[in-house]
From TrEMBL:
Name of the protein: Alkylated DNA repair protein (DNA oxidative demethylase)
Domain Fe2OG dioxygenase: 109-211
GO annotation, biological process: methylation; oxidative RNA demethylation
Gene3D superfamilies with a match to the protein in the record: Alpha-ketoglutarate-dependent dioxygenase AlkB-like
Pfam families (UniProt xref): 2OG-FeII_Oxy_2
Biological classification of the source: Bacteria, Bacillati, Actinomycetota, Actinomycetes, Streptosporangiales
Domain of life: Bacteria
Organism: Nonomuraea endophytica
GO-annotated cellular components: cytoplasm
Keyword Transferase (UniProt): yes
């Protein structure tokens, strides 16, 4: 099936359906499986007031914990997270070009990625990605089961927002006036992934520039 054309969901926020081919999706699944094992194993992030996130997360480059980045995972096992690989910088640059932002691509050097794994029950509340000291775009890749992705505004967690279904292989970039917009994942659609991707559940990779 032909993917739908790219769509600007909000100023600076672009959804590119079917951007990753199946081979690239499978390669990313393998890479994430390795990172999930360590040096810092994938885990449910514990929030400062004791809540536990339903997604499981592993980071590369810099470790995110609520609400800052460190090189070592002091809230997990104290080890330094895996290096941010050069091939993923290239992937991030290609993603910006794919999202119609070629002028930003050459200068884009993401230095952290949050890898989130969602099981059937997992979701993510509306939040801003604002622990980075850079306004460079966030590049988000989705693999496996589809989800409902809610992309809102920079002022409130509520309306106006746009609901987008993110499928395996989709790219979503948010930068410019949408860089600090609230967004979240209210729902995953279990069993919707193409079996050849080799994943039960949903994988999301967000690349960012920490500015650190
Ligand atoms: O899973 C997604 O599509 C979004 C993940 C996200 O917003 C985050 O990791 O900050
Ligand atoms: Fe986010």
């Amino acid at each position: 099936m032909m993917p739908l054309p790219p769509r600007e969901v909000a100023p600076g926020a672009v959804h590119v359906p079917g951007w990753l081919g199946l081979d690239e999706q499978r390669t990313l699944v393998s890479a994430c499986r390795e990172w999930a094992k360590g040096p810092v194993p994938i885990r449910h992030t514990v929030l400062p007031r004791g809540g536990v996130m339903s997604v499981r997360t592993v980071c590369v480059g810099w470790h995110w914990q609520p609400y800052r980045y460190t090189r070592t995972a002091d809230d997990v096992n104290g080890l330094r997270v895996a290096e941010f690989p050069g091939w993923m910088v290239e992937l991030g640059r290609r993603a910006l070009t794919g999202a119609g932002l070629p002028e930003l691509a050459a200068g884009y050097t993401p230095d952290t990625a949050l890898i989130n794994f969602y099981d059937d029950q997992a979701r993510m509340g509306m939040h801003q990605d604002k622990d980075e000291r850079s306004d460079a775009p966030v590049v988000s890749l989705s693999i496996g089961d589809a989800c409902l992705f809610r992309f809102g505004n920079t002022e409130t967690r509520g309306r106006p927002y746009t609901d987008v279904r993110l499928e395996s292989g989709d790219l979503f970039v948010f930068g410019g006036p949408s860089r600090f917009a609230y967004h979240g994942v209210p729902k995953v659609y279990p069993g919707t992934a193409d079996p050849v991707v080799g994943l039960r559940g949903r994988l999301n990779i967000t690349m960012r520039v920490t500015g650190l």
